[in-house]
Amino acid sequence: MAKAGLSARLAALSMLNGVLVEKRALSELTDPGSDIMKKLSGSERARAQSLVQSTLRHLEPLDMLIDFYLKKEPPVRARHILRICATELLVDGISPHAAIDSAVNMAKVSRHTSFLSGLVNAVCRKLDTEGREHWEEHPTQQLPYVLRKMVIGDHGEKAIEAIEEAHVKPVPLDITVKSADDVARLSKELDAEVIGDRSLRLHNAGQISKMAGYEDGAWWVQDVAASLPAKALGDVAGQTVLDLCAAPGGKTLQLAAAGGDVTAADLSKYRLERVRENLVRTGLSAVVVTADVLTWDPLTQYDAILLDAPCSATGTIRRHPDLPHLKDKTTIKSLVELQRQMLDRSFAWLKPGGMMVYSTCSLFRAEGEDQILQFVRETDAAEIDPIDATALNIPEQWVNKRGCIRTLPHFLGDQGGMDGFFVARLTKKAG
């Protein structure tokens, strides 16, 4: 059994090194066409990705416990092997024999660690016997110092503790259903929880492509928080709608399903292929354009625009635990500047009297609340159109005093949390 799962563990080892040493995004490493993943079966890919995510969610306390059984720092590859074994033993509940035997085999695979197979075996056995008691008392993993300080400044001490607790919990799978008429049926077939109007939450999802309704195009994967920006535009039936930074396409599908005449634009030609694939699968239609918001000129104005701007993505750390190892304060500053440039250009493409939604999956006010308030102050034609929580069928807690949506990862905590998002709705004054 241990040898049968060795390929997935070795892939996890490579991905862990890719994130922590090479500073590469996990989404890049887990792409089915990547060198790491293309030789694995579907189940092996799923296991490798799950193992890396679990390790990253608990990295700090895992290292603290591993260090207790080391006399000196081992080579980084050996450190990764110990981290993976500790995750399997203490987080995922894998059989000790399978986890430890695989760790030893991973060490033997490379000449850089083969001479340390005895050490790996000894430390892993200590983790299994003595380590479990210490693990029960381990502290919740915190965000890196700079990110943590910024979140505390924006949301306070109580919020950061709740956010960090949400980051280490198992993450359910959310999907958006194309037709409201299918929600009840699919919730039963998928054993899913209904959240909101068309969102379903699965706590034990299997292989996505094998799930009921997938081939029929009845739904698409989308965190419940990510479904809010398109909902905030309201009834778009018969309207011309521009979805900017559209890939991978969840919001485009929502707007098309609502009857909008949608143009989906994104800088990445590669990522837009996923939009096209999802449109075909769901039987929906939209014009797909490869375009840079900063240089593109659509030569027309739209009734409605959705700008889901590039951001730090800190609101998605619960699903992407590699992000804290890739982001820093300098990156945030450049993103805020880019967002403002995109706001300025795209607002000019909105018809007078039209509606625009600006959103980011960020925890930081600089990319959300502060950004939009400054834009409105400096743009005479723009004003905030307060969002009505009741109209969107969402809790009032999710809407701030200015009528903008602000979600945090610990919201819906008893049900598995949600992404952190900011959503503002603007109107363009006529004349």
Secondary-structure topology with pairs:
Blueprint: H1 6-20, H2 26-29, H3 42-57, H4 59-68, H5 76-90, H6 96-109, H7 117-129, H8 131-135, H9 145-155, H10 157-167, E1 173-177, H11 183-189, E2 193-195, E3 199-202, E4 219-221, H12 228-232, E5 240-244, H13 250-257, E6 261-266, H14 269-282, E7 287-290, E8 302-308, H15 329-347, E9 350-360, H16 369-378, E10 382-384, H17 389-392, E11 405-407, E12 421-428
Parallel strand pairs: 5-6, 5-8, 6-7, 8-9
Antiparallel strand pairs: 1-3, 1-4, 2-3, 9-12, 10-12, 11-12
How would you describe this structure to a colleague?
- With 431 residues, the chain is α/β, with parallel strands linked by helices.
- The chain has helices spanning 6-20, 26-29, 42-57, 59-68, 76-90, 96-109, 117-129, 131-135, 145-155, 157-167, 183-189, 228-232, 250-257, 269-282, 329-347, 369-378, 389-392; strands at residues 173-177, 193-195, 199-202, 219-221, 240-244, 261-266, 287-290, 302-308, 350-360, 382-384, 405-407, 421-428.
- Strands 5, 6, 7, 8, 9, 10, 11 and 12 form an eight-stranded mixed β-sheet that branches.
- Helix 13 links the parallel strand 5 and strand 6 (261-266).
- Helix 1 (6-20) packs across helix 5.
